[in-house]
Every structure is written in C-alpha cells, then in structure tokens.
Amino acid sequence: MKNIVCVQMGSEPFLSVYKGINMNVVIAIDRIPCSELSGLYWTGNNKVKVMEGLSWEPVNIKIPASLSITDKDDDKNQLYTATLKFKTCEKLSRMARYAYRATLTDGTKKIIGTDQRPFPVVTITQNMPENVTDNQLDEVTVTWTVNRQIPDIDS
Question: 93-144: per-residue pLDDT in tens?
Fold first, then answer.
C-alpha cells in the first residue's frame, strides 16, 4: 500500500507527496513590483538568482493554484509561456507591473516575470454569482511569454 501525505493549509487540504512522486502543486504565491528585481541574474538556462532581503508580498489564494508552462516554435524562435491561475479574496492592485513567485509542494520556486520586458500580463475576473453558494473569489490569470525557459529561483 502506498503512503499518501496530506497537508492542511488553512482550510484547504492538498496532496504534497505520493510516495516519492512530486505532485507539483502550487501552494503559495507571492508578488513584487518588477522594478525591484533589478539585481536578478541568470545562473543557467532555467535558473535565476534574486537578491536577498526583497519584500515579496504574499497573496492569499485558494489552494491549489495552477501553473502551466508551454513551449512552441514560432517562426524558428522558441517561445515559452507560463500561465499562473489562482483564486483570491484580495483586491489586487494593478497600478504597477508585478512579477510572481509560485512555490510548489516540493519547495521549488518558479518566477513569472523579471525587471525587463516583456512583463507578465494580469487578467482579473470578478465573480458576482446569482447563487450565494457559488464562487465569489476573484479569478486571476498571469501570463508571461519569453524566449527563455521559465526559470526556477536558485536558492
């Protein structure tokens, strides 16, 4: 029989490990204005190093969130697209450009955005359902398309 470890975060249970297999579930999201990432540098093809002491702003989310990463060949150029989707009760300000950090159950941290163009595009859908029992959380989609692999944060 396989062991399943269930972790409780707030009121939402989620699977973190299934006997050595990474579930790759997004369990936390933070954001920071892109302008504060000026010290970010690439340490490899898909890893970046960020400066210590940055003040990442945690985003309250309904766990789990989703992150999908696709790559395609567009006219002989390799493009990578990260799509981060989550639900939140916060009213997120869109007055500045933000980069997002997604933390997975295995501890991996992905960064969506840097201090350079192209910046992530954020779409917020506000729900006002006809039933009070239906979802009333804002649905947020962050999309970032670049010509490099979507990087992990090197710790």
Answer: 878 899 999 999 888 999 999 999 999 999 999 988 888 887 889 999 999 9
Phi and psi based region of residue 107 (left: phi greater than 0; alpha: psi -120 to 50; beta: remaining): left
Confidence band, pLDDT 50/70/90 cuts, at residue 39: confident
CA 27 to chain centroid, in Å, comes to 9
Length of the chain equals: 155
| DSSP labels, 132-148 | TTS--SEEEEEEEEESS
Q: Are 149 and 80 in contact (CB under 8 A)?
A: yes
Nearest residue to 51 (alpha-carbon basis) of 39, 69, 42, 36: 39
Cα–Cα dist 34/53, whole Å: 15
The SS3 of residue 36 is: helix
- Cross-strand pairs, 72: 79
Locate 117 and state its tokens.
């163009």
